[in-house]
């Protein structure tokens, strides 16, 4: 199995565990860092994730992984929340972030700018619409030009 297939299998198993608990499995990654492999499961729920949620999912997915053994090498299992600065990767992430402030980085300038900050107003398969400034002037950015979208955190 390749990395993508492993992540898809783990996502399916983790969803079966998390959904009855009211927890959404948002993403699964298998990455090598500093010579060590990490299997990361990212979870979320409307009221936010706490350490007990992460521990519960970790304890329940661990025997499933041991039983199916989809990864043929040693790895570290990590279960965590999305984090404040995680990229918005799909329509579910965007839907969850409607009305929130976002930073959009582009592959090339669009209307003279390579980075846009505004309130996420709408999205479709083709475009992402943000409101800019107090007037909420709408700008519609083609999705095929977007390199990354992240929540913009004001401190």
From TrEMBL:
Organism: Carboxydocella sporoproducens DSM 16521
Entry's family note: Belongs to the RimP family.
Domain Ribosome maturation factor RimP C-terminal: 88-155
Reported function: Required for maturation of 30S ribosomal subunits.
UniProt-listed SUPFAM superfamilies: YhbC-like, C-terminal domain, YhbC-like, N-terminal domain
Main location (coarse class): cytoplasm
Keyword terms, alphabetized: Cytoplasm, Ribosome biogenesis
Annotated gene: rimP
Pfam families: DUF150_C, RimP_N
Protein name listed in UniProt: Ribosome maturation factor RimP
InterPro entries: Ribosome_maturation_RimP, RimP_C, RimP_C_sf, RimP_N, RimP_N_sf
Gene Ontology biological process terms in this record: ribosomal small subunit assembly; translation
GO CC terms in record: cytosol
Cell compartment(s), UniProt: Cytoplasm
Coiled coil (residue ranges): none
Occurrences of domain Ribosome maturation factor RimP N-terminal (ranges): 15-85
Domain of life (superkingdom): Bacteria
């Amino acid at each position: 199995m390749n990395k993508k297939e492993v992540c898809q299998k783990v996502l399916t198993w983790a969803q079966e565990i998390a959904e009855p608990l009211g927890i959404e499995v948002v993403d699964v990654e298998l990455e090598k860092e500093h010579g060590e492999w990490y299997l990361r499961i990212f979870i979320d729920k409307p009221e936010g994730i706490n350490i007990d949620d992460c521990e519960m999912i970790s304890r329940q997915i661990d025997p499933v992984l041991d039983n199916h053994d989809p990864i043929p090498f040693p790895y570290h299992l990590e279960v965590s929340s999305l984090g404040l600065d995680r990229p918005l990767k799909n329509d579910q992430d965007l839907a969850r972030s409607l009305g929130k402030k976002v930073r959009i980085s582009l592959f090339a300038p669009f209307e003279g700018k390579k980075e846009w900050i505004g309130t996420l107003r709408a999205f479709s398969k083709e475009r992402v619409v943000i409101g800019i400034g107090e007037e909420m002037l709408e700008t519609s950015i083609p999705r095929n030009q977007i390199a990354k979208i992240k929540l913009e955190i004001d401190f």
